[in-house]
Amino acid sequence: MSRFSVVQLIAVCAVLAIGPAIAGGNSDAGREKASQCVSCHGVEGEGVGENPPIAGQDPKDFVSVMRAYKTGEIEAPMMAMFVQGLSDEDIADLAAYYASLSREE
Ligand code: HEC
Fold first, then answer.
1. How many CA atoms lie within 13 A of 3 on its CB side?
2. Ligand 1 centroid to residue 2 C-alpha, Å
3. Ligand 1 centroid vs 13 CA: distance in angstroms?
């Protein structure tokens, strides 16, 4: 019985560790890629001046808004310039990274 719970515990830990990977992004990789975002969105994604905060954003919303900037569905000249150079993987990594930051209001 006790042995069984250890196995369960390990299984839970494995799922927690794999969880973010299933979501598609790697937040450590995202942190590196975020260096090009800090001038406008802040070191912690808190937003600078008129640039909106992006910390704590749901990864799904993050990915869909970034895709919309890329396709031009949402017109935002500042963002359009930056998303062109980002692959889907970059966007997923950035989404995971910013989702891991907490938003302070
Ligand atoms: C030159 C300044 C600038 C840079 C650099 C920049 N952004 Fe932005 N970003 C903006 C502005 C301005 C907006 C608001 C655009 C709008 O009006 O929809 C925005 C909006 C966003 C949004 C949507 C926020 C929301 O709540 O709708 C996300 C997500 C985002 N940026 C992510 C990023 C990421 C990731 C990077 C780095 C790869 C980045 N931005 C780099 C200026 C910038």
1. 0
2. 50
3. 34
Mean of the per-residue pLDDT values for the chain? 86
pLDDT tens-digit series, residues 19-49: 444 458 999 999 999 999 999 999 999 999 9
Which residue is closest in CA terms to ligand 1's atom 33?
37
Instruction: Give residue ranges with CB within 6 A of ligand 1.
Output: 36-37, 39-41, 51-52, 54, 62, 65-66, 74, 76, 78-79, 82, 94
What does the alpha-carbon distance between residue 101 and residue 93 come to, in Å, rounded to a whole number? 13
Residues 6+ apart with CB under 8 A from 46: 53, 55, 103, 104
Give the distance (Å) from ligand 1 centre to CA of residue 14: 34
